[in-house]
Amino acid sequence: MNLFTSHHLSPLGTIEIKANEMHLLSVQFVEKISLENPNELTRLCIAQLEEYFNKQRKVFDLPLHFEGTEFQQKIWNALLKIPFGRTWSYKDLALKTGKVGSVRAVGSANGQNQLLLVIPCHRVIGSDGNLVGYAGELWRKKWLLDFEQGDKNGKQMGLLY
Questions:
Q1: Known catalytic residue: 121?
Q2: Count of CB atoms within 10 A of residue 145's CB?
Q3: What is the CB neighbour count within 10 angstroms for residue 91?
Q4: DSSP-derived 3-state class of residue 4
Q5: Which of 118, 121, 125, 144 is catalytic?
Q6: Within 10 A of 137 (CB to CB), how many other CB atoms are there?
């Protein structure tokens, strides 16, 4: 199966999108841009990322493929249910997936998400409200949560282009 790659310059840095002919495979922040080989799906993902960063999209509508254990896939599917602008704790995620005693395993599965933003793992925080763990770095997680929630006056934050 062919692998297709595109890049999107976001307010948080360069995002690399990988897909095959049928599914989105990964959405990751990268420091270096690799060779581009776009297809319709990577272009669609870029269009939806632009809509997201312009507050015109709250949920991504893309055919996803995530490889992982049954447990990881259960966690990633649960992440898709966290609404835009809201957060769940790792404990909440464990409870909602029936894995009450597995908060650390839930956190580990969350950290293995290869589809950043599209599967909103940035919306998971510590039980004490602290920002913990994010493959895209904590400063991006804070920016994303602030962006989705707007500022304290209820006005939406501007983009950092």
A1: yes
A2: 17
A3: 15
A4: strand
A5: 121
A6: 12
Residue pair 12/143 in contact (Cβ under 8 Å)? The answer is yes
Choose among 146, 68, 140: nearest CA to 110.
68
Burial class of residue 119 in the structure, from the number of CB atoms within 10 Å of its CB (0-12 exposed, 13-18 middle, 19+ buried): buried
**What is the per-residue pLDDT across 17-66, written as a single tens digit (0 to 9) for each?**
999 999 999 999 999 988 899 999 999 999 999 999 999 999 999 999 98
* pTM (two decimals): 0.88
Return the pLDDT at 151: 54
CA distance readout (Å), 128 to 50, 88, 89, 91, 131:
32, 11, 8, 10, 9
pLDDT at position 31: 94
Q: Which residue has the tokens 């994303």?
A: 144
Contact status, residue 16 vs residue 7, Cβ threshold 8 Å? yes
Q: Describe the crossing of helices 70-79 and 103-111 by its angle, rounded to 10 degrees.
A: 80
Tens digits of residue pLDDT in 68-114: 999 999 999 999 999 999 999 999 999 998 878 888 899 999 999 99
Q: Is 115's pLDDT higher than 90?
A: yes
